[in-house]
Fold:
Amino acid sequence: MHQLSTSILLIIVLAPLAGAVLAGFFGRQIGRAGAHTVTILGVGIACALSFVVLYQLVWGGAANYNQDIYTWFQIGKFHASIGFMIDRLSAMMMVVVTFVSLMVHIYTIGYMADDDGYTRFFSYIALFTFSMLMLVMSNNFMQLFFGWEAVGLVSYLLIGFYYKRPSAIAANLKAFLVNRVGDFGFVLGIGAVLYFLGTLDYQAAFDHAPSLVEQTLQITQHTHWSAATVIAVLLFIGAMGKSAQVPLHVWLPDSMEGPTPISALIHAATMVTAGIYMVARMSPIYELSTTALSLVLVIGATGAFFTGLIGIVQNDIKRVIAYSTLSQLGYMTAALGISAYAGAVYHLMTHAFFKALLFLGAGSVIIAMHHEQDMRYMGGLRKRMPITYLTMWIGSLALCGVPFFSGFYSKDAIIEAVGETHRWGATYAYYCVLFGALVTALYTFRLMHLTFHGKPRYKVVESHGHDHDVHVHHEPGVLSHPPKESPWVVTVPLILLAIPSLLIGYFTAGPMLYGTWFGKAIHVQEAHDVLAEMATHFHGAFRLGLEGFTGWPFVLVVLGFAITTYVYIFNPPMAGRIQRMLKPVYVVLDRKFWFDEVYQAVFARGGVKLGRMLWKAGDHTVIDGAIDGSASLVQRIASGMRRLQSGYLYHYAFAMILGLILLLGGFWWFGHV
Amino acid sequence: MSNHLLSLLIWLPMAGAIPVLIAGARGSTSRWIALSVAVATFIASVFLLVAYRTDGPLMQLVESYPWIASLHVNYALGVDGISVALILLTTFVGVLVIVGAWDVIKDNKPHQYMAAMLVLEGLLVGVFCATDALLFYVFFEAMLIPMFILIGIWGGPRRVYATLKFFIYTFLGSIFMLIGLIYLYQKAGTFDMATLAALPLTMKEQTWLFFAFLIAFAIKIPMVPVHTWLPDAHVEAPTGGSVVLAAVMLKVGGYGFLRFSLPIVPDASAHYAWLVIVLSLIPIVYIGYVALVQEDMKKLVAYSSIAHMGFVTLGMFIVFMLVRDLHNFDAANLAMQGAVVQMMSHGFVSGAMFSCIGVMYDRLHTRRIADYGGMVNVMPWFAFFMVFFAMANVGLPGTSGFVGEFMVILASFSANPWIALVAAFTLIIGAGYTLWLIKRVIWGDVTSDKVAAMKDINGREAFVLGAFALAVLVIGVWPQPLVHLMGGSIDHLVHQLAISKT
Structure:
């Protein structure tokens, strides 16, 4: 057993940071090529070394790493530090984060080629990689929160990347604030950890976690809440913000205002999965509270089904995928809720690959369509962009969970595991995640059909070479030249992401899902371990894949495919007819269950109204009113006093005598008391 | 010389004001002299940091000379870790306000402005190292004068109203403190603060004294409901005045609690801790909402200051619940550290925010949020700094704004989760008002021709903002040196508070 090298871990974290700083502050000096070179170099180094670390842990026989780098504060016995905990769970996350990030970096060269903010963009995404690595590699709650907020900051900056657009800067404010609602719970959760466990260090906290069972938090005289439940629920509120769980999911669809590469990296593959990672990391604490886990399960399953439904009625290609992300995050959360942490993290990994692929593919389509994102003006693109078409099919089939694709192994396992659990809420959750498979198929195949199949619905008006500005299109669906396949910097990342989307499930499901690959990084009580139960009838990935063809989820996927194919390929007017027929349902989905409207009215406008009221009524009327009132009172007394200063000697003498009497009287009185 | 380091720190800037005045308004001589004096003072304070030993006695670099012998009043100075930190903050800000005002005050008696700043700096250092209560009181009162002048001469259109309100409020508060101090002198026969801290007092006496001190320091810090002088003073003050006011003068209120309320009347403080805690929690929520709807940038930041100072008083008084009811000294240390770190951090962050507003004001001569918009298009470097400081104001980890709030919230949870719940609300509302400001001012398309004509920050402004940013970042990334500097002093204070004096 040898140790991982601290220097390697430091380089993994600092290389992307160095790239970000160079590109950010010296972007003008080093130019566009310089900016993408330094950041890609930084992230490339981090990615390569992450693979080395994973290799050393899994095959090289290295021991888990848990060390502090420096002390952040030491107050009494309380200790916060910057440090790393590297086990298979964090190593897997490091590889996923740096690999997807590297793909996105390369892709960005093509996607952002015409953008003025080119160097700024590279700086941000490299900074994001640094922040995300700090988050997943942390060995304590303080640094976890640092990474947690730092990725939020970068997300804020990137959603508002096109800062001239009013919708973009509204979306980034919204994203930050909704996340802050989550962080509110998260910080209190950390406070609870410190209170009950006396430490901010992961390992020490997990070692003491069993002591939570006897502890309670007194709420009122007769109400006591279990300490484990309090901690778990509060931390989960943080996860609900970051991982966009109902009812804090509203920021994620709006985050699509950001450029597509970051939708892939931040708002699909990595940052939004931070909450999932966090709960899996905290499994020794969550295992102690089935109450909290039931809450996690119900919220996750609700999101998995209902947000997916919204995806069916979206016309913006990125928004469909965004709702799909919400739905898939729901699956992961539901998996956490049934103690199938490995299942959640496993789905996180496969999802990172195929969802990044789908987003980048959508971005490729968007480039070809000259930044048109409305699918109603697409169609028939399959012949014009074959690589994008093919890779997106791989991503779609993986997303739908078609056997042998990576998504099948992760998603079907979650559906089955929920079905075999008997926790409170599990029956409801099972129907949510099962029919979620149908919903997934509906929006996915609808997207594929509208975009790539059928006849083109866009028009090409050749502009005779005068108009080179591809961003300006006055009429929707009118292009100045026909769509064509994207350059290699775009397609190569698509291909490199398609490979794991296709294969990684087949090769890793055995050990990671049904084996003990994660070791002690994930702790499950024996009675809760539904994956271990399922492992008893696991006989290899191939057999599992074959059996998948007879399962309910696959039947639903086929049903979804049949419906969408009929509606969108063979009978296009049908879609409109269904929409009219199911008008109330359509309205509910189109308005997204009115979450935005309610939040806007209650919290945004209500907050401003409340503030105005407090300001006018409190500060102005009551406080300053009292002050100005007393000021005018003083003035009245003073003018009265002025009359006393009459200049007549006997007035003064009288006053002096009066004062003397009062004074003496006072002394006499108090002297006797 | 190191025996007189503290005197040097007080009198160097004050004496330096004389040649600045003599040099006169013409040319830049007076400004260069002022800058040299401020830099020399800052360097001297770095020597102070080096000379201070964290493992040494409680009060170090002590100086004591009879001042008013008949009353046993001494010119007595000394510092502990907390004082050292606050003195560093003062001298650091002292340099930056002089650099910040370099071209801005050029045409309006710049030598007098610089001289007033230097005098103010010396008096503030005096407040932070006086160990005799009367001497403290003299510095405490005297610093009103240069600030009064700064707002009154270089202030905005309603400066007379603002200065009067400012003066009357703070003067009223300190009268009560003076009465309290005279009573203590009657009992102890001395103004020596260490002796007063050890003086046994009945609960009744402590209660009267507690409220006398509370009025004085609550106004200074300021706490709801005696806070309304602050937004007015800030709005009318020149940029440098606002920076010193927010960055250092408000800290004097917090420092007063540390030196008077807590050690001299610990039992009354413990008994009325609930009151101060409630008065600290109210601004975090109430002022947060009020800040949200401000139309004037300076007012917004002023209100935000009040909300942030709520964490200072919360951290200080939550200590009593932790040591007296729960005997949790580690959490108490955490709370007290959080309070003082928050004071330091707020010094840098609010100073920087007001400097940013000053940069904008110098260009457009308006502080109305509605007059700005899309600044990032024309002033990208400025936008970088403004967003950075906004994030520090929001308490983002990695900036100093996070450290104190985090510590206080964590410690509060150990005292009472409901208090932590209310305090943590700042995460939401603080982000709300700060980032909404950023959205309207920094992001978006350029809103007017005037904004379009704005030039990005010059080297001088970049230096000021860069220096603030560095301080914010260093404390945010590695607070341990600061925590260690103050650790011994805070631990001593916390243990002192556990012991009843009655």
Chain B has a mean pLDDT of 91.
